[in-house]
Amino acid sequence: MKDDEPFLLDDPARLKALTHPMRRLMLRHLSMHGPATSTTLGELLGAKTGTTSYHLRQLEKYGFVEEIPERSVGRERWWRRAGATRDIRLPRPDQLAPEDRPVLAAFHQFAMDEDRELFERLPSVYERDPEWVKASRGLGRMTKAEFEEFFEAYMDLLRKHSPRAEDAPPGARPMYVRLFAFPADED
To answer: Is the pLDDT score of 102 beyond 60?
Structure first.
């Protein structure tokens, strides 16, 4: 799969792979800091190398990380986030079998808990470093087709400005970016 094609998480096992807390931390580290070994990740996360190796293999199995063969020597394997700028999309509930929909709901809950933690940190981050914090709230009026066009343009813009950690220019910082959009008349 090419990095610029949407990556649909319509496999319940793939969704489950992303709801494991250790795997989320590993992916976050690889996204922010670039390639690492299971040993490095274990030291950073307070886990044994066998544990991090297992989780890396699970992430590899589902296409979220990849080994860097040219950096790997002997037993030392280097890993990076696969498709760091990949557009990962969730399925609609009707795209999953009824028995698999709780996995999607669990994924949403896990992701929202992470996002809630980020939003709670926003005021203190803004206080320390206001030039690196931007926030916007708005209300627009769109048809379903216009909303789809807006979302696709947003995803294109995000990919354009999101190189891998190892390809980023000097002074580039990892940035959390979130977009929430839903009808205001649902309140």
So the answer is: yes
List of residues 6+ apart from 78 with CB closer than 8 A: 35, 36, 37, 67, 68, 71, 72
List, for residues 62-83, the tens digit of each pLDDT value: 999 999 989 888 888 999 998 7
Tell me the angle at which helices 49-61 and 21-33 cross, rounded to the nearest 10 degrees: 80
Q: Total domain count for the chain?
A: 1
Other CB atoms within 10 A of residue 163 CB:
13
Residue 46, domain CATH? 1.10.10.10
Per-residue 3-state assignment (H helix, E strand, C coil) for the chain: CCCCCCEECCCHHHHHHHCCHHHHHHHHHHHHHCCEEHHHHHHHHCCCHHHHHHHHHHHHHCCCEEECCCCCECCECEEEECCCCCCEECCCHHHCCHHHHHHHHHHHHHHHHHHHHHHHHHHHHHHHCHHHCCCCCCCCCCCHHHHHHHHHHHHHHHHHCCCCHHHCCCCCCCCCCCCCCCCHHHC
- 179 occurs within a structural domain: yes
Domain of residue 73, residue span:
7-186
Is residue 1 predicted with pLDDT exceeding 50? no
* The Cα angle at residue 76 between residues 72 and 78, in degrees rounded to 5: 50
Residue 3 has pLDDT above 70, yes or no: no
